[in-house]
Design brief:
By secondary structure, the protein is of the alpha+beta class. The protein has 7 helices and 4 strands; from the N terminus they run ααααβααββαβ. Strands 1-4-3-2 form a 4-stranded antiparallel β-sheet. The longest helix is centred in the middle third of the chain and has 24 residues. The protein is globular and about 40 Å long. The termini are far apart.
């Protein structure tokens, strides 16, 4: 994929900011200070670093983007993401980059609109998040951040609603069911 031009870069930049702003794992890490007092600056840096990563690397694959995000979350936010959103965010960023590179203003706009509709659910999930015991982890230097109260023995039946499908298409899953671990903070 060729590097996008100036207008396309602006489209992609908007998309990156929207995806990161709607990514529950990153927003939880920020809300709970996992990035330290410079967390918001680190998130802004991540947006720029992602834009640069995409424009400097031709033909990025989903796994490469996922690894980049995982490394940044671990190194900059002391966070191990376990909710599957790394893959979803990677897919959305790749899709946005492709659309922006083609100058597909309508496609980028539709994705931005879907992310905006996801906002209220994300705010509710962030408000409900709390540190918890979570499942035992072999490294005692981890703190789990959970949404809800208890880990279910088996996940509840998956219900595919229009809202959940939109959220998945936007690179951020809907809030996990009560008690599911979303992110794990690695203490240093």
């Amino acid at each position: 994929m060729a590097a996008p031009g100036v207008d396309e870069r602006g489209l992609f930049a908007q998309g990156v900011r929207a995806v990161l702003g709607g990514w529950a794992a990153l927003q939880l890490a920020l809300a709970h200070g996992f990035g330290g007092p410079q967390g918001p600056e680190k998130a802004a840096w991540l947006a720029g670093a992602l834009q640069e990563f995409f424009t400097q690397n031709a033909e990025l694959g989903e796994e490469e983007v996922e690894e980049f995000l995982a490394e940044v979350m671990d190194n900059e936010f002391d966070t191990v993401v376990e909710d599957g959103s790394l893959r979803q965010v990677s897919r959305e960023l790749l899709s946005l980059f492709s659309r922006a590179s083609r100058g597909d203003v309508g496609g980028v706009g539709a994705a931005l609109g879907a992310l905006a509709r996801r906002g209220p659910a994300l705010r509710a999930a962030l408000a409900a998040a709390h540190p918890g015991d979570g499942p035992a982890h072999p490294d005692p230097g981890h703190t789990h951040l959970e949404i809800g109260h208890a880990h279910p023995a088996t996940p509840p039946e998956e219900e595919e609603s229009r809202e959940e499908e939109e959220a998945m298409e936007c690179g951020t899953p809907p809030a996990p069911p009560d008690g599911w671990t979303l992110v794990r903070r690695r203490r240093r």
